């Protein structure tokens, strides 16, 4: 190769690199140009995701850091990889994003591959008209009356759990695993009408598949990172969210159960029954409710077996990890805080005495201190450290001149708000008194968001305390047992 060609190649390479650098620099000036307070990026590759990507901080810790670094601004900009994203810190503005201006923020931006992976076509991932129609169809299945009917199934699981613990006498117990097994039994009974008996059989297939669907592996981390950088690429490459074993398992379970029930004319007060009823008959009256402004076209979404399976699957996924970690963290904190444990025991004894040693759906409403304890767990350890909303039309931030563009990722920093001393006096302690009536009244709304808020609030919120058993188990176990940390906890 002659000198001219070499020089030409070097010059071309320099020009390309300089141009790429210019584009990157321009991208990272995004918030500056919009005149929005922002955090300088620590890395042109990862942006603010760097400390999380390198394992220096957990996802929750890195979001807490961002929340604190952006103080005292009401909102501010960051970069996730190269994507400019907005962090909303001010509770009043949070209310706008989640509730008041919901029509500008109805999308969660979840990647899903619905044409080639129907199991991902569930409520959490759906958007717009399709989300609205399915949400409206499913909401009545979570009404107080329907949950009350399921309470008997939860009670069965609680009784079994108490027996299992009793049989272990004074043995040390790995509570996280036991709570996961208990939660699987509750959800599979309430959602699918199946007795999985994971409490007795730790290797039950249901538990194995649930854990497989949720456990992070190197491959799932790569997929998540790729999805954050370019969802379109993931879609183009047809990368699946769940492996075939999990998909086939859930498809088979729902299909076989539906067929068996139809053939044998079986009716059971569980979620699967309620959803298959909806499949047969559209509840057209409730479908006319269109208060949040999203167009609703009831004919556009037919509840096929695939769609029913996807909704049962999200009930399982949505309830499994969230509820079992809430229970484990509650027991962990009770073990560390004898004062709280004692107070809880007194509260539960009071209610049990009043109801002649019987726990019922109604008596659960009266264990006020137990509610405070569970809320404090959800404050300190929210299952989801932030909410995501995609700005679906250009949006002018109230009382400012800032207009954020359609497509902007908007984050609600749940973990940051829950650990802000301005709203919670003892942010790093386990302090159920954060949830006395006076304390709740004294802080702004939209600062305690373990279940999200607005039209996309967790559909299972009510079922967590009441039917799916967090409240029931905490009450019954507190009545019978005390907890303390064992030598393996390292504390
Ligand atoms: C301690 C237990 C739970 C916690 C902390 C929790 C938390 C959450 C959060 C933070 C969201 C997002 C809300 C938003 O974007 O505003 C959510 C959504 C959702 N959750 Fe839960 N959840 C729990 C239990 C459950 C249970 C038991 C179920 C099923 C029965 C469930 C089903 C769902 C579904 C389907 C959505 C999507 C709702 C929609 O987009 O319309 N969750 N949950």
From TrEMBL:
Its main location: endoplasmic reticulum. It comes from the Eukaryota. The chain crosses the membrane at residues 6-24. Pfam families: p450 (PF00067). CDD domains: CYP6-like. Keywords: Endoplasmic reticulum, Heme, Iron, Membrane, Metal-binding, Microsome, Monooxygenase, Oxidoreductase, Transmembrane, Transmembrane helix. It is a peripheral membrane protein. This is Cytochrome P450 6PU1 short isoform.
